[in-house]
Amino acid sequence: MNIRFNGKRILVAGAGRELVLQGIGRDLVKAFAKGGTTVVALSRTQEHLDSLKAECPLVQTIYADVGSCNCHISFADTWFGQ
């Protein structure tokens, strides 16, 4: 099966950690970005987002804890405002 995401936008929460560190989000971000997808990456750890941005400069990063109500409002403004 060949699924294409070129020209699409995708949101990846938990994007800071690599698979070897008990996370899959960062690896998903890199794979989608490599495939031509516009990626918005969320993480609650700014250092992880900074290093991800250094690896994938075209990825939009958002520092957020999706468990927080304030995050939902801020995120909605950023995501849907574009």
TrEMBL record:
This is Short-chain dehydrogenase. PANTHER family: D-ERYTHRULOSE REDUCTASE, D-ERYTHRULOSE REDUCTASE-RELATED. Belongs to the short-chain dehydrogenases/reductases (SDR) family. One of its GO terms (biological process) is xylulose metabolic process. Keywords: NADP. It comes from the Eukaryota. It comes from Allacma fusca. The keyword NADP applies. Signal peptide: none annotated. GO terms for molecular function: carbonyl reductase (NADPH) activity; L-xylulose reductase (NADPH) activity.
